[in-house]
Amino acid sequence: MSDIESSTDHIGLFGMQIDRVDLTQATDRLLDWARSPQPSACRYVVTPNVDHAVLLTHHEGLRASYAGASMVLADGAPIVAAAKLLGRALPGRVAGSDLVPRLFQAAGEQDQPIRVFLLGAAPGVGDRAATNIRQQFPGVEIVGTHCPPLGFEHDANANQAILDAVAAATPDVVVVGLGAPKQELWVHQHAEQLEAKVALCAGATIDFLAGEKRRSPVWMQSMGLEWLHRLATEPRRLAGRYFRDAVQFPPLVWREWRGNPSF
Ligand code: UDP
Predict the structure, then answer these.
(1) pLDDT reported for residue 165
(2) Looking at residue 111, what is its pLDDT?
(3) Which of 37, 71, 118, 156 has CB 3.0 to 4.6 Å from 145, enough for a Cys bridge?
(4) Using CA positions, which residue lies closest to atom 1 of ligand 1?
C-alpha cells in the first residue's frame, strides 16, 4: 500500500465508505495508480451525489459497485453538508468534473504523459473532448474514444466491443461518462476484463471537456448550487429525479442522525 493510500481514512455515510480526501490528495492517489503496474482488476472511482445515496437504499447492484470501488469521493455538496451535520466532516467536495481536469493538469507536471481513454457521451462528443484535451493538457495522451450505442449494456457484443477498444488502446486511465448508475454498474461488472489501471465514473465530464455542456459558474459551485444549474439546463431530464431526491434524502439524513441507517 502506498503512503498516499495509507495516510487517509473513510467515513461511513448512507451505506457508503467515503474517502476522507481533498481534491489534491485524490489526484495524487490517482496519478500513483496511473503510474503503477496494472492490477488484476481495474481499479475504479465513484463520485456519489444525493441521487446515489437515494438509489443505494434499494439498488443491490449499485451497492456492490460501491463496495468494490477503490475510491469513493463526495461529489454532491449536500453529501458534504450532511457529513458535517452528522459529525463526520469531510475535507470538502471532490467533484468528478473537477478531478478529471486536475488529474490532466497534474500529469503535465511530471515527465511522462498519462494515457487516457474516453468512454461515453453522445456520438462525436468524445472526439471533440479529445481535441480540446490535446490542446489544453500536454501531459495527457488521448489513446482512444468510444461512444457505445444506446442499450449497449444489454448487448454482449457491444460490451465486448468496448473492452476490445480499451484493450487495443492500452490506457492508464478510462474516463467513463455513461450516466449514473449505468457507469458504476458497468465498471463493477467489467473491472476484471477492463485493461486499464483505473476507471473514473465521471458523469457529464466528457460533455464539459467537449464544451457540449457548461458547468455552473464558480460562485454557484462554491455555494453548493451546482445541482440548481444542472436542473435549470436539463429540467425535463432532471426534475423528476431531483423531486424524488428532495423527498427521500432528508429522511436518510434523519435516520443516520438517529444512528439507524436505511440499510
Ligand atoms: N450516456 C452515454 N450512454 C448512455 C447513457 C448516457 O454515453 O447509455 C452519457 C450521456 O451522453 C452523457 C452522460 O452519459 O454524456 C450523462 O452524464 P450525467 O452525469 O449528466 O448523467 P446522470 O448521471 O446525471 O444521469
Answers:
(1) 98
(2) 85
(3) 118
(4) 178
Per-residue pLDDT, 259 = 86
The Å distance, Cα 56 to ligand 1 centre, comes to 19
pLDDT at 170: 98
Question: Dmax of the chain from CA atoms?
Answer: 51
User: Phi and psi of 259, rounded to 5°?
Assistant: 75, 25
CA of residue 255 to ligand 1 center, whole Å: 30
Cis geometry, peptide bond prior to residue 181 (ω within 30 degrees of 0): yes
Sheet holding 114-120, edge to edge: 71-72, 43-46, 198-201, 173-177, 114-120, 140-146
Distance of CA 242 to CAs 138, 179, 236, 247, Å? 38, 15, 11, 9
Q: What is the mean pLDDT of each run of 10 residues along the chain (263 residues)?
A: 54 97 98 96 97 97 98 96 96 97 96 95 97 97 97 96 98 98 98 98 97 94 91 94 95 91 66
In angstroms, what is the span from residue 177 Cα to ligand 1's centroid?
6
Nearest to 147 by CA among 166, 126, 175: 126
Whole-number Å distance, alpha carbon 85 to ligand 1 midpoint, is: 31
Cell of 108: 503535465
The set of protein residues with a Cβ atom below 6 angstroms from ligand 1 is: 120-122, 177-180, 182, 203-204, 206-207
Alpha-carbon gap, residue 79 to 22, rounded angstroms? 14
Res 263: pLDDT: 64
Return the SS3 of 119: strand
- Please, what is the end-to-end C-alpha distance for the chain in angstroms? 30
